[in-house]
Predict the structure.
Amino acid sequence: MEKQETDALVKPDMQAVLSRTHLSVELHAFLLPVFEAISNAMDSIETRFGNESASKGEIQIRFQDANDPHKILISITDNGIGLTDDNYQSFKTPFSGYKLKEKGRGFGRFIAFKIFSRVMYSSRYKFFAKDLTRTFRFDIREKQEFIYFDGEPDFKGEGLCVEYNQPLLPWYELIKSMSAAAIMDEIGNHFLPYFLYRWLPKITIQFNDNPIKDITAYFKGIFVQYDKGEIVTEIDGEAETLTYSLARLPKRKAFKNHCLLFAAADRIVGFPRDLTNILGQPHFIDDKNERYIVIAVVHGEAFEKRLNDARTSIDLSPKVVETIVSQICNAIQTKERTQIDKIKTEQSSGLNEALRENPILRLGLKGKTIAEYVATRPNNWKAEEFVSDLAILRFRASNDLTREIAAAANDPEDYDKKLAKLVKEVDEGQKEALAEYVIHRKNIIALVESSRRYVSDGKVGTEDRIHELVFRRFHDNSNTGYFQHNLWLIDDALAFLPYISSDRSLHGKGRKLGDKVSDLIFFDDSMILGDEEGTTVTIVEFKKPSRDDYVFGNAKNDPVMQVIETLEQATAAGGLTKSDGAHLSFAGVVRRFAFVIADLTPSLVRVLKKHDFKNDWNPKIWVKYRDNESIFIQVLGYETLIESAKKRNQAFFSVLLGE
């Protein structure tokens, strides 16, 4: 066999690469080829005009038959250096070194084939003093990807025109509903970094035969940097310096709330991170009583290194993203101190009103003023969150008070003085508030007991009545306060988990075919366990009292299979959407627990035994850890639910109600 001296790489199979690139069918994705053409045009203009690029450069965008998928033609024309021999050679080379040097990936021109089936290039360029042209159709599905045409470009002078048409079928409906305003907003938003800290040529856009609009002039008055700075964040074990720019924008359709944007290769990458929950309000109000939002754009070399080839996302862990979000919010709060003070004043006023109704909770302040306490808590908290937090602090403060009393009793020195001080901390208002809440709990237990009994027509009441008592259906704790539910019936600890949802879909919208909707679902980020990469998801399923038609292995009639399928779907969804639109993502290991609350009728017991449930430690509670699904399930009857709730509250009933 003849010895082989050398060999060469086979060129990349770009169709295969594209097949692994996913685009959602939405306007931003549809415009990715346009963004790419504009970006390349700016590079070409800068090469030709240098420092005069902003004043001499021009990019013209045209949408003809903009809402007709059969006729639409999109063109982007610039007056840059054109498709010279060097540029053309780079164009023919996927992932070229030249593009990497220019913060590109050499992949952008291929993304067009995820949306359009026809792409045309026409260019006029200088070779020494001679004007040359290059016009061709580019198609990666052909064996010879370049199909050349004669003729001059439709524009005058040097430059390049890119045309896209013949969109693929999945984009037809989107094209029919596109609006000129939405397209302009997407282009302006995508190139926001250029407005804030770089330069822009004159960019115009025309839809059909409507008047030409100047995008650059329009957005220059909106996207204005008012502050900038640096943050240092650890990424993959290294301290990375990132630069941020802040801009104040009038609240508008494109930007409805404060948000953080990541930038790489001088354009916005990915979707905005909503900062409402941390800043406390979706928008601020200025001295003229007009609404505005704060946009933060973060960029840095660390992002350039982690930008994917399609330039649609940056490879950052959720923990790093959250750290950056926190640092940027701190910078915004420092700059917007007046607005944050307004929020804190409103929070203090709301909490003061809540404490008038629940004076017992003042003990949780532990000597702080309301303003001092509120200053240490999140900006988005409402009175309900403060009340829940103070309930925990009051419990801890009560334990501290108990220890102080015990210490005073054992210390004869200044006993009377210490005792007088402690007595002041247990006033009549606190005792009255506690008695009122204990009566409420006693009445709720009585209502649950009555809901299990036969109603007037001789039928057993439905589980919905009990469900409503425990937590209102179709609500979550974004719109349900601590004193508006009775989760203590199941377990007092459940009331303090970060997120609780009742009879709502995981995606937060109307129920769709195939959705598994749990009666109650609880989300916990597991930070109390010291695990920053974990999530706990717990669901509760209520079954009709006295029901006795359960069947093993059928999800409709087997509650064990039902909770397993619901938890599997929740895990696969990767998170939950709250009623206020915020999304909670499941991170790392997802621990899964389930409660089934149903009368232990013969058919249910048979089903539990077939699933190998045990009730050794308590004959009234059946338990099973499902190894295959990693789910821990408890099944208990309504009788046990009521009995346990009575036991947990019996001390209160005895002391305050004389029972």
About this structure: The first strand starts at residue 58 and ends at 64. The chain is about 35% helix and 25% strand. The chain has four domains: 14-220, 225-335, 342-426, 433-646. Confidence is low (pLDDT under 50) at residues 96-106, 527-531.
